[in-house]
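User: Let's play a game. I give you a shape written as C-alpha cells, and you guess the letters that built it. Ready? Here's round one.
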C-alpha cells in the first residue's frame, strides 16, 4: 500500500473517531482512543505500520456499527 492510501485510511479513521466523541493516540503499533473525560481505551494493535490505519478503521467501523445497533442502551459507545 502506498503512502497516499494509508493517509486516506488515517483521515477516515480520525474523522470517524471524532464524530463519535473520541480523539486518537498512536503508541507504536497501537492506537488508543481518548474520551472527553480523559480516559483511554485500546482500539487496535497491528503487526506492521502498513496495516496500522486499516486495522484501526476496520475496528472503528465495527464499534460504530455495534453502537448504532444498541442505540437504546445507555452508555454504549466506542469505548464501552
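Assistant: Ready! My guess for every position:
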Amino acid at each position: 500500500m502506498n503512502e497516499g492510501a494509508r493517509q486516506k485510511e488515517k483521515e477516515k479513521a480520525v474523522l470517524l473517531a471524532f464524530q463519535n466523541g473520541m480523539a486518537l493516540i498512536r503508541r507504536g503499533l497501537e492506537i488508543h482512543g481518548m474520551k472527553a473525560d480523559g480516559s483511554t481505551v485500546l482500539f487496535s494493535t497491528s503487526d506492521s505500520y502498513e496495516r496500522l490505519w486499516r486495522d484501526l478503521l476496520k475496528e472503528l467501523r465495527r464499534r460504530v456499527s455495534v453502537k448504532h445497533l444498541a442505540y437504546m442502551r445507555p452508555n454504549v459507545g466506542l469505548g464501552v
